[in-house]
Design a protein that fits this description.
The protein is an alpha+beta fold. Strands 1, 2, 3, 4, 5, 6, 7 and 8 form an 8-stranded antiparallel β-sheet that branches. Helix content is 29%, strand content 21%. It has one domain.
Length: 208
């Protein structure tokens, strides 16, 4: 086990000592505790959007299709960047990705792969198990909890954006599906960082 004194260097510095210890306890049980504890109900009535929030009825387009629909989505943008009180010459747009039902995803894999002989049921079961354990870098697993009625997931490569002020503050308590707890937020930021910022492409980027 990694000592708390070592790992706490990477924990949010704004947490109290008690909150840090609680977060460390949850991380120490990973991946066997990925359940509703990744959410918190303490911020559900807040009228501002937090990074990692699940929000109902966000516009979505899946290029090259030009059809626009509404989906539940998870906010990737930093909280302060989309805070309406943070005035800028050019306001930053809210970046988000749609939330997909995990069971429907699994069923679509079976239909498109098992029925054609490209993959086995066992391979798909293993893939879904890896999703639930947060082992796949470009997917974040969202267990049933908060106002999320089904086990779900997001893909970090299915991103859309929209003006940050497109949702009125008073609408948020009704449109918010979930807000991440300290534990859930730490997992989310870790996977977000791994997907977008790891330096492992093996390419020498010469100056000249």
């Amino acid at each position: 086990m990694i000592p708390f004194e070592e790992i706490k260097r990477y924990l949010p510095q704004y947490l109290s000592s008690t909150a840090q210890q609680e977060l460390f306890k949850e991380l120490n049980q990973f991946p066997h505790n990925i359940d509703q504890r990744i959410y918190t109900s303490q911020l559900s009535g807040q009228e501002n959007i937090f990074q990692g929030d699940g929000i109902q009825n966000l516009l979505y387009i899946n290029l090259p299709s030009t059809d626009i629909g509404e989906v539940p989505g998870m906010v990737l943008s930093n909280t302060c960047d989309i805070d309406p009180s943070n005035k800028r010459f050019m306001p930053l747009r809210m970046v988000y990705t749609p939330i997909f039902n995990l069971t429907k995803y699994e069923q679509s894999l079976i239909k498109s792969h098992v029925d054609t002989g490209k993959r086995s049921i066992q391979a798909i079961n293993s893939h879904v198990s890896d999703i639930r354990k947060q082992y796949i870098s470009h997917i974040f697993y969202l267990p049933k909890g908060g106002n999320l009625e089904n086990d779900s997931m997001i893909f970090f490569d299915r991103i859309n954006n929209y003006p940050s002020d497109s949702i009125e503050g008073q609408e948020l308590p009704d449109r918010r599906i979930f807000t991440l707890s300290d534990y859930g937020f730490y997992l989310f930021l870790f996977k977000l960082s791994v997907h977008f910022t790891r330096i492992r492409d093996g390419v020498s980027r010469f100056t000249h």
